[in-house]
Specification:
The structure holds two protein chains of two kinds. By secondary structure, chain A is mostly helical. Chain A contains 14 helices and one strand. Classes of the chains: A mainly alpha, B mainly alpha. Strand 1 of chain A pairs parallel with strand 1 of chain B, so a sheet runs across the interface.
């Protein structure tokens, strides 16, 4: 028995797909009505903006509910394990109230239930770690917390918890590797291997359990993160700078200025470009409307941009301004070419928008980006004698004049 | 769950007929994969990079040989973009229209950004506007506003409104709204309130006249946030007028709340989903205001009162927002 009605989630998925066909005129109104009858979904309707508000206010109320007894209780007790039990007890209490609300109010990712899941996990994890003796390594704490997170994830299938579980998992690997002598050298390779296995594993799970939609979002997020970590661990910039940071933080170590050259630079330069290239190749050849397709293409593009930026960082063939201009022109060129080329579908790709496209959201984001870019150009003359102090353009470039 | 699985289920239930199933399966099989938004995001990123790169380039090469050529190139590109936009201009109507070229919207954005670069440079190098700094921001506002209407571009409208806001003396960028804005200065607060009221009134009048109704959302989002932040700034910083600002905030929240509900009933296409933003805005800004007033005037001595306050108000706001959720289940919504 899980937190949400699995049948409804399944039905919802069926109806969403049926609705797409209905809008394309492939299903008649009667068929759509019949589908609604056959696949009832009782969850309360939701809205992205209200979810944010509900999440905020629910979290405020729960935290205040916690602090009210905690401020009295924790000031009286001096024993850490009693505090821990109090926190765990409160977490379980939150879980029960949340369960009640989910069932009574038919919630499914309405913001309220998300706030309950996140806070209860926080209390439980906090309490659990308080039970451990002091002075343990980060890796141990992560290892203890991970099963708890996985349990919560199994019960709720919540995307945020999936993210926390992944972060804990990677932190565990990272910290335990640094403990061993060969760990630092092996770090990028271990990270890449683990991410690759994670991605492949999730792919298999998604393939085998096609009718399971309870965890689809969490599993998709896992794929995204695994691919991002995989590309980042092979990136020359990330490896070199992280290596430099780790050298600096070691007590008694040599004082280094700037990150020194790493071992096997050629290999990492190769990986910097090769991994996104592989994503691109996979994305372009794997046919079919699988979600990984879009993910691979987006990550390939971002990865290649990052690779070029890495190259610019260390070789600096041209100054930043020229690099930005040329890079921008290249991107515009690719986009214009792509749009023109795909104006008629070719090789299974098209430029026509489809149902999966996030229309309104994208337009709003584009407006904000335009305002942001223009605002940076338009402000600032008040404080300076001439026109200065402002910085031109957004897009990650921040230079002052 | 792939479309094929759904199709099999529907056919098993007898909702989809066998020959229809074959047809849909075939359409799904042959459906090309849409790269529409990916390509447009790429185009957008490219435009932002080029405009910031050129901006940097001009300043870095200041007083050097060749920067005249550079400026000429930028000016030429700017004019070229405007020409392109004009060539593919849509017919002028009061409704939502689109440029006849796919790239019209993007060329317009690029042209506007390049114009800002040129204008900034003109002031930097030749001090064209002298000390009349207001002109530097008023000029883009006056230029962009008609452009936004003529070519029906919400992004340019946003830029025009931002320029207008800077001209009045409040620098607003969405991400820096709360960090950089100077609301300790009474004239600033009052002018911000005045400007946002003017903009809101303008938006309402234009919407009533059915002139570019889809712009209303952009107007109200920008002006509404400015109004609420300015009112909160006044509430926090000025002792003498605090209750007046509180009253203004209450009225503003109430009005936005009413507007959001009204929008949902009229069922303007696309307006229903977005109208919840105004509901959220009035709830969050209102809550901040109420909380501040509560602690400012009651000034409770015991911590318990703080906690009880947050418990009670938190639950109350959750109930309120819950009651505003659309009735019925989520499958009826257009996904």
């Amino acid at each position: 028995m899980k937190a949400y009605n699995e049948q409804w989630i399944h039905n919802r998925e069926v109806l969403i797909q049926a609705g797409k066909w209905h809008r394309q005129g492939l299903l008649s109104d009667e068929q759509m009505a019949a589908a609604r009858q056959t696949y009832p979904v009782e969850f309360r309707q939701t809205n992205g903006f209200l979810e944010i508000g509900l999440f905020l206010f629910t979290a405020v109320a729960i935290l205040a509910c916690y602090l009210l007894p905690a401020s009295i209780f924790l000031s009286m007790s001096a024993n850490q394990s009693v505090d821990a039990l109090f926190n765990i007890g409160f977490g379980i209490g939150v879980a029960f109230v949340g369960r009640l609300l989910i069932n009574r109010r038919l919630l499914y990712r309405n913001g309220i239930d998300n706030a309950f899941v996140v806070t209860l996990t926080g209390f439980l994890a906090f309490g659990l770690n308080q039970l451990l003796p002091n002075g343990l390594s980060v890796a141990t704490h992560c290892l203890v917390t991970l099963p708890l997170l996985l349990l919560v994830l199994w019960y709720y299938g919540d995307t945020l918890i999936a993210f926390f579980a992944l972060a804990t998992f990677y932190a565990f690997i990272f910290d335990s590797l640094l403990k061993v002598s060969w760990g630092k050298d092996a770090l990028p390779f271990v990270m890449m291997a683990i991410s690759g296995v994670l991605y492949a594993g999730v792919r298999q799970i998604l393939k085998r359990t096609v009718n399971q939609v309870y965890y689809t979002d969490a599993l998709n997020l896992t794929q995204w993160i695994a691919l991002i970590v995989l590309a980042a661990s092979g990136n020359y910039f990330v490896v070199r700078e992280l290596n430099g940071l780790l050298l600096e933080s070691r007590p008694g170590g040599p004082i280094v200025t700037g990150a020194p050259e790493i071992a096997l630079p050629a290999l990492f330069w190769f990986l910097t470009f090769a991994i996104p290239a592989i994503y691109l190749w996979q994305g372009l050849t794997k046919k079919g409307p699988q979600p990984p397709l879009r993910m691979l293409l987006i990550l390939a593009t971002l990865g290649l941009i990052a690779a070029v930026m890495t190259l610019h960082e260390y070789t600096a063939v041209v100054p930043l301004n020229v690099a930005l201009t040329l890079g921008g022109l290249v991107l515009i060129g690719i986009a214009v070419f792509g749009i023109r080329y795909l104006s008629r579908p070719k090789y299974g790709f098209t430029d026509a928008p489809d149902d999966d496209s996030p229309n309104e959201l994208f337009i709003n984001a584009a407006t904000i980006a335009a305002v942001q870019a223009a605002g940076s150009a338009a402000h600032g003359p008040k404080d300076n004698l001439r026109y200065g102090g402002g910085n031109f353009g957004g897009g990650g470039s921040e230079g002052n004049y | 769950m792939s479309p094929t699985d759904v199709l099999n289920e529907l056919s098993k239930q007898g909702i989809v007929l066998p020959d229809q199933q074959v047809k849909i399966a075939q359409i799904e099989q042959n459906k090309p994969f849409s790269l529409h938004w990916e390509l447009r995001s790429l185009l957008y990123t490219g435009i932002l990079l080029v405009s910031s790169g050129l901006g940097l380039l001009v300043y870095d090469n200041f007083d050097r040989i060749g920067h005249g050529a550079l400026l000429t190139a930028i000016a030429a590109a700017c004019v070229g973009c405007f020409y392109f936009v004009w060539k593919y201009r849509p017919e002028w109507t009061h409704d939502q229209t689109k440029s006849r070229s796919t790239f019209g919207d993007y060329a317009l954005i690029l042209a506007c950004l390049l114009f800002l670069t040129l204008e900034g440079y003109a002031q930097y190098a030749y001090n064209v506007f002298g000390n009349r700094y207001g002109l530097v921001t008023l000029l883009p506002a006056l230029l962009f506003l008609p452009l936004a209407y003529r070519f029906d571009h919400r992004g340019v409208l946003g830029m025009a409104l931002t320029a207008l806001i800077s001209w009045v003396g409040v620098t607003v960028r969405p991400l820096e709204l709360y960090f950089k804005t100077n609301f300790f200065d009474q004239p600033t607060v009052l002018s911000a309130i005045g400007l946002s009221l003017v903009l809101i009134a303008l938006a309402v009048v234009l919407a009533k006249q059915r002139i570019k109704v889809h712009f209303t959302y952009t107007y109200l989002t920008i002006a509404g946030n400015l109004l609420m932040v300015a009112l909160l700034g006044g509430l926090f910083n000025f002792d003498e007028g605090r209750l007046l600002f509180a009253l203004g905030l209450a009225v503003a929240c109430f009005a936005f709340d009413r507007y959001a509900r009204q929008q949902r009933q009229t069922q303007v296409p696309g307006g229903a989903e977005g109208s919840f933003l105004f509901l959220l805005m009035s709830a969050v800004y209102g809550y901040i205001g109420i909380t501040y007033l509560f602690f400012h005037y009651l000034n409770p001595t015991s911590d318990d009162i703080y906690y009880w306050y947050f418990i009670v108000t938190g639950i109350a706001f959750v109930y309120y927002l819950m009651s505003q959720l659309p009735k019925g289940n989520r499958t009826n919504e257009s996904v």
